[in-house]
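Morning F.,

Quick status update on the modeling queue. The single chain you submitted on Monday has been processed. Sequence for confirmation:
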Amino acid sequence: MGNLTGKVAIVTGSSRGIGRGIAERLGEDGATVVVNYSGSEQEAKQVVEAIVAAGGKSVAIQASLSKVEDIRRLFAETIQHFGQLDILVNNAGTGVIGAIADVTEDEYNKVFDLNVRGVLFALQEAARAMNDGGRIVNISSTTTIHPEAGMAVYAASKAAIKLFTAVLAREVGARGITVNTVMPGPTIPGMFGNMPPEVQQQAAASSPFHRVGTPQDIADVVAFLVSEEARWLTGQDICANGGAKS
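Structure tokens below.
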């Protein structure tokens, strides 16, 4: 993987799960990592401590990605701290499970405020502030290609992210900035860890590796996409689900 020394990265929602795995991996590769969190301050501090203990540089910044003013503050504080931005990983997200017939307006707003509006305005700030040659990775979901009952709101929000990727890749490509999507399959720890054991077992059985993913599996894919070696990849949707067919 490419050496990220001298690069500054924001990883949203990185106090736990996939986000934590990505933050720690980018720190290992030499990036200075902004660990973003909404409410899990103690966990965010633990991620920062882990990165620093491994020889990296990191700071935690609280910001709710469902609030545009918080997004703008996150980017402003990053530039204030480090003077630059080279990498953005849009990982923060939430979901609800329920049939379309039962979805409430509050549930819809909760998911779309964070997963769609939050990502859009984070991308806006990145497009304005990021150095030429930067890297943007948006975390979507394989539910956008393997629809399941009860997942309409979550999957629709994650599908919007893929469209953002395709459009922004064309808008910033002349500056050498790449924009790609990673679509994790079932991953533990993460939101999938809250699913019933039988659902987790079915997911593991659907992969030829007979297991679900780990945050490290996803982090390694992201680490490649933000490296110099991935300079010719942009506007792509990368399926990272261990070859599962559902």
